[in-house]
Please model this.
Amino acid sequence: MGIALKRHGRIAFAVGFGVLLLLLATASQGFVRDEGYYFRAAREYHAWFENLFERGLDAFADNTLTRDFGYNTEHPGFVKILMGWTWKVAHVWLGAVSGATGFRLGSMVLVAVGAAFTFLFGARLARAHGAIVGLLAVAFLFTSPHVFFHAHLAAFDGPIMGLSVAATYAFWRAASERRWVLPALVLFGVALATKHNAVFLWAGLGLAVMVARGRDWSFSDGKLSLPPLPIAWFLAPIAGLAILYVFYPYGWVHPLQRIGAYYDYHAHHEHYPVDFFGTMYTAPPFPWGYAFRMTALTVPLVTLVLGVMGLIACARRAREVDGDERLGLVLLLVSCLVPPLVISFPSVPIFGGTKHWMPMMPFFCIAAALALMEAVGSIRYRVVAPLVVVAALVMPFTDTIRTHPYGHTYFNELILGHQGAAVLGLPRTFWGGDARPLLVVLNEKAAVGARVYTHRMNYSDWQQYVTDGLARRDLVFVNDVASADWAFVNHQREYQDAEYAVWQLGATRPEAMVAFDGVPIVSLYRLGRAAAR
Model:
């Protein structure tokens, strides 16, 4: 057993490193809207470290912390601080990657850590098949187009997915091994310092233990006796808040006020428009089960079917076993269900496409891998087994390759792909990051000093395109389409007023377009003044 664990550790490291290299080699997505904010935040946060020794104690004064860390306070600092350092080392010092990839590298590292722990979780849960299940789980995870897309971005969704599976695995181990208590606390704390939804991770871990140890519940003499919770669960909020505080310098001087304001912001988050089957939802109640239905339409069909089969099999198995294996199975089930369930309540703001319940995906893919190996195990002719495994991965792999770098626009065969989703009124894109290929056309055809309306691409994104040499330096960013010579238009129904404005300026045919399977995603228009030149 010890030899197997050591071997699994080496494989996990190789898996994580391999995923990191894969992400670096395929980081060709455009800069999505929120990335621009995080590019800027990472630079400003890093400036505090660069000037730390010069400032001395003044570096810890409230006015200094507010100036350097007072931007984008609605998210904790850990990932942005990490992105600042990876940008500094990989781009500025080594010149090994572009500026944007330098920022994205910090997020990719945490996704790669999550890949390693996805392997470990699957390998430990399926001791009969061991490493094969872990490897298949990672393969299913990164052949899910939406996951593969978000795994590259300088944002928090890939990192919280990775840290959720890492913390859950460590918590599982800590329930029976004291040496895992500290790693579990640290990983949960880093998750809390990454994104606010780590709170639901902690709640889910407690729920899983209560369910897994349900046989220890008792009621006698009018008293209810509950099963004991692991010490790591009780210590997690203390350790988590301490680590959150360390990586939230904006709140160092006024922690209760500022960290409280951070949580209050997310408790009362604004409602973004949601285009769902032809209805534009702008306020509660939102459609019940939205996250579950979107998952059913945006996960490759093979992975979806195997994942559901795997969850059913895990639920049955959990009723038959006890101890460590039962806890692992229940952790997998709860970790799959809690993230989409939280989003599915009609009063919860929906924004961000599928990325906000993405922490479920490592566990869902482990379930898919378990189901596949159970199916393979029942095959009489062993020579056929490898062919079945390859066949199961062909369609997800093909879907991911075919949709890259537009994986967040992917819909599966249940809704007849991109065309079916467009006809039935589902969102074609989100975040405004699909215009990158159109910059080539803009650079070639725009006059010197031309003004460009970028629609869902924010100014920091535009600056990064210019800095990385993807957009000409003489082109001028403008916020008003009426004053622009060129205009990008993202085909999101909630923002179609921008396209109407472009048409009113006389531009009825785009100069160039990004489309997938004939479905327009983003268009570039040459407006009246530019057309006349």
Notes: The chain is about 60% helix and 5% strand. The chain has a mean pLDDT of 92. The two ends are 74 Å apart (CA to CA).
